[in-house]
Amino acid sequence: MKKIIYAILTTMLLATGCSESWLDPDPLSFYSPGNTLIDKEGMLSSVTACDRLLREEFVGQHSPILTAMIFSEQCVLGTTDISGPAQNLNEKILPTANNNWDQTNRMYWYWTNDYLGIRYANTVITRIDDATYESESERNNILGMALWHRAFRYYRLCMLFNDIPAVFTEVETPVTNLCSVERDGILKKIKSDMEFAVQWVAEDNSRGRISKGACYHLLAKICLTLGDFDEAIKATNAVIGGEGNGGVIYPASHYGRDALVGIALFLSHLAHEGKKVSELRATYPPYFIAKNRVDLTPEIDVDAILAKVKEIYKNEEINDIDGVKIDFADKWVHLRKSNTEPIIRVYSEASTMEAAEEIGQKIMDVINELAK
Predict the structure, then answer these.
(1) Which of 71, 85, 123, 247 is 20 to 30 A from residue 25's alpha carbon, by CA?
(2) Which residues of the chain have pLDDT under 50?
């Protein structure tokens, strides 16, 4: 009897259960771009995904930022009694090394994570006009934030890997024919994107979101990398700019080196202080600058030499934004490959001319030895 009852119940369930409408798939319940990116809230949810990826670099016991620091001149790994961590760096960067394990290094994390961030940002950028907004500024604020995320990822990938594959639109199907793009081409593209972003991204976006200040900061870094120093001055709202040859850029006048503007500023300051030139000079600490040069031949690899100089003086403070500047406790030396002549300019500064010449000559001797 029980078997008959079970058979009847099973038959009833099979006959009635499959006809229920709630079993039918409902596409509107799927979290897909076509169903989600239809309004401001949907777009911001995708921007939030980009924001979330940023924090992953800095959290956890073996956060990826440690790899970025150890593989630069910023720090060294203190552990010396185990074989796992990155110590022989020239071996750890080979393709055969374990480059995405928290016990060694997270180099490949940057590759995979940055391209994931680019994918998220490209989805927003490509579909920006699929949604409805209350105003043009609301649309462009969201677009600008997505452009920042994409530009930030590409900027870092270019700094880490040089020429890389570049995709600037949403990819919905597998792609197997990507080729590397020259770094400068990518940098010029993201510079253009950031010039749009600084116009539209709000200054007071919610905490944790990209702001106008973040856009200007990234734009300045891109401009410096491209050698567009005047544009970098604009992006940072710098009061004045210049370089060791005495050229002065004064944005209040115009964005170009102008000796007459420099003279006018000096004379104005002199008149304001009401002092003689010698008296004014006496109010500043005594520093002297020496200017020298190293002549180059076609077979010399300047970039390789500058990299070796950085390694030799890694215990000093190094700045490589424009060439290589070595800051010692009481003096500095700046090495820069000329854009107009086959030379390395060697500028040095110290409290006496003798000391400035001495440290400059010492660095030139190192360069000449490396060039042999």
Answers:
(1) 123
(2) none
